[in-house]
Fold this sequence. Notes:
Elements: H1 16-34, H2 38-42, H3 49-58, E1 65-69, H4 75-82, E2 86-91, H5 94-106, E3 112-115, H6 121-125, E4 130-135, H7 146-156, E5 157-168, H8 170-173, E6 197-200, E7 216-219, H9 224-233, E8 236-244, E9 256-259, E10 264-267, E11 277-284
Amino acid sequence: MSCRGCRWQAGDVDEYAFVNRANWESRVGHHVAGYGLQRYLDDPAALSQVVEFDRPRLGDLVGKEVVHLQCHIGTDTLSLARLGAHVTGLDFSPSALAAARDLAAACDQPVRYVEAEVYDAPAALGTSRFDVVYTGIGALCWLPDIKRWASVVANLLRPGGRLFIREGHPMLWSLCDPRPDGLITLEYPYFETAVGTHFVETSTYVEHAGELTSPATIEFNHGLGEIFTALMRVGMEITAFEEHDSVPWQALGDQMQEDPATGEFRLRSMPERLAATYTLQAVKH
């Protein structure tokens, strides 16, 4: 949720799923072209940058039943399957799922994909049947109610099952793009709000020609305390939490530079000032 120039007129919060689905549908073609999918076909051991970053934290996934919520075009989903998991990917975008299925088939990797809203995941997939619920980076900001999300996670997991999530830090989501004078300022809510923040952004985060056909989005931040409390209230125990000073994209423009060792971006000056992402794990009792 960086500063994107123009605001969309706020409407009923119930519009969020309709508006955001249209936006993500309009991104799919650009992401298929811009995600570098050929490397997954060329190298059967290739993993997505996001999964590679957290591979030491993921542990042994061989034989585990894993569900990847908000899986998009399936690069992280495929990567989890390559680590030995039996993976189900869930997303609300039919075009994204079609691309994900094509990628899995081309890589000869069995992955099940299901079209559904996150909040409908227990009804679509069944309850108490997964060893791991995985959520990749840039997912929670599309959901208006973190308590409801936590309930979904708990319902999907078997007793002893684990949530694994790497996400953009709410501190990062509350910042605006650098101003002309180079200052980065607090612009957007840190805490969850009822109506979210409305944007119009005509391009996505990969380079592409033309504009998105559905540029409007409605996004929601969730403070760390809100996330922790929501999980604990549904019987989850936080077992690991790590904050990182890096993020997989150039979130704050020229104020960030790429680390060639990881492909992630951190502040050029004093990167220790910013918690950019976090990795959280929790277990269902």
